Task: structure prediction
Amino acid sequence: MSYIFLVFWFLILIKSADFLVDGASSFAKKFGISELVIGLTIVAFWTSAPELFVNVFSAMKWETGIALGNILGSNIANILLILWISGFIYPLKAKTSTVYKEIPFTLLSSFALFFLIFDSFFSQAKENILTRWDGLVLLLFFLIFFVYTFGISKQETQFFSEKVNEMSIVKSMIYIIGGIIGLALWAELLVRSARAIALSFWVSETFIGLTIVAVWTSLPELMTSIIASKKKNSDIAIGNIIGSNIFNTLFILGITSIIYPLSVESGSIFDVLFMILITFLLLIFLLFVGQREILGRLEGSIFLFLYMSYMSYLIYNQVLAI
Result:
């Protein structure tokens, strides 16, 4: 009976992602908003909702390791795992603005997080804390990004997939809301199960956040990007990931640290630097490797290797810590 229940929820996850992509694409076409803007804002925000819920609940319970690990782990999984899967299904063509503006902004937000977190390195403080003031700085960066995204629709020519099924505004909103609800319910179910299982093995909160919680809260991004890739909506597939990482770093960590300042383990410096490295690598791939502005199977294979290596590193260190 439990297996039937899991299959049922998995089908809901797939259909929810399908509804969200169809509704967002139709909404964009109806109002002349670029699919990239939709991917960077509406889709990215709501697929990041599980990370937001987990972090808010974690901060309220003072489980700061889970909160930070969840964001770092989700961002790493988004780039290395989800873009690999999406690119394997169909090569992802990135827009020029994505390569030269959105990805560099993602890189900038990662550097901002690095400088704000590691007080012991930059100011000789006794411990590393993401304070409420740091959270306000992150939210200020997010506000700049939010204003920028709406300027995109006025500056670039709109291109839409010929296969976009244009629906009425009401039906588009029903599809979007239905997709959001389905994704949120699925992620909540998975997060509760993951935390219970992981805690039973006596592993650290940060390890839980970086691995099980991060991957499971990234499932909405995974399913949304897979559906978008299958429909050849590269703008939503890539925009969803880039937008989600920006939302995670700036908005969710900003809100979380304002609720309760996050204490940061010294070992997290590697995770932040690794996140910066792979974001830079994504930019290099789109600029100089293979076909320009296209993420294909070769680049995806390298991403998969890096992700497996990173997971192996985390597990190895956790075993040694025990």
Notes: The first strand starts at residue 92 and ends at 93. Confidence is low (pLDDT under 50) at residues 157-162.
